[in-house]
Task: structure prediction
Amino acid sequence: MSEKLSRRKFLRVAAVGAGALLAASCQPKVVEVEKIVKETVIVEKEAEPAAPEEKIVRMLQSSWAVGEIPFDAAAREFNDLHPGVKVVVQTTSEGWDTKLVAQIASDSVAWSIVGILTPFLVMDQWVRAAMIQPMDDYIAASQEPGATELLDDMIPAIREDGSYEGKFYSLPYSFENITFNWRVDYFNAVGAMEAPETWDDWLRICLDLKKWGADEQIFPTAFAGALWTDIGALFCSAVDSPYTADGMIDWEAPEMTECLAFYKRLIVEEELTPPHGTDGWLDSFYGGKVASVQAQSSRGVWGQMAFGTDKVATSPIPTRVKGGGAGSVYWGNGTAVINKAPYPQEATDYLIYTMGPQNLGFQKAVIKTGKTPIYYSAYEKIIETDPQFRTYQWMIGMLEDVERSVVTPRNQYYLIEHTYWNKHRVPFTEPGSTMTPEECAQLILKDSEEEIAKQKL
Result:
């Protein structure tokens, strides 16, 4: 120090310091704590403004679709590119629809997106129950790449399938239709190098296959056991207008009698299928005991995964006459924006980012699952030109098939007609059955109409 303190000054300074410390120690400590807490709170409020609200967009999706399609990966990518928005993918569980309806009624909707929407099953129900809302305005307002091309690039029949009374409700990531899935090696063994084009071709090849595969007990053909895969697809292959003005399958059409007669001939008279046309067909198919099956298009890819891409092919279903009929039954695997959803624009933006025509990586992932793309550009840029997707060129035939197909009616009749089809097709296809095609059709129609009338009460 530049100046030394005298002993007297030093003692005086020390005494003052000690007195100050003593005075502080004698004060109630709680007062000092309160002062410090008060000052800390004031400083924090002034220094840190409130964080902006993060927009949480919850997607409620069928578990099988989440397991098959990379919705989660797309959500992470979208979140990284859109600060302040977070898409969360959740899977449906039992009772989710009841809970959602209650949330909509109380204006407390937790989710923004819902799928899978299968139009022929639930479109009418979901729209009438106000579970979902049209997407047209949100698509038009979206700034996402692909938004302006989305609806124009979509196959018109698929766009119609996702619509209800002129408004677009359901954006699909793919479509499925009923196809003819066949063992190329088995067909080639009897000289059939191409898929059958007509019912007569189908029957002739099956008769040859029956002889060829008798020792190995190979069924020449089979059906998947649903209304659309069986008689529904056959009927579409026979007529241009499969449905009545009331929105039911035209069970009284003369062509329906022909379809049922042909169906019974394959199963009962010629014994070309498993029992009842369907019993145990999938296990038999994987066991190499079924040479062909009329089923969803993805089933052909399942066969390719099991036996090789050179052993199984997928083709349009045979028609009653060459080039006739209304294609086959088809539907989109769709996703919709929930009514009263939080952040509906951000929800639509995510769907466009993920499933739009510009996302070729997503389109390729979908194609590899055996699901057929919905955009013309996916065929041009991937299936027709990418060498790695040469084995999926059968999908071009599906595009052509769906372009001439008729959209299923916007009602809730399918499950009713499906139920009574399965009820009556079993006795109809029993060995020795005397039930005529006309009788089978009338029984299905009568039971279906009675059930529909009950539901309208």
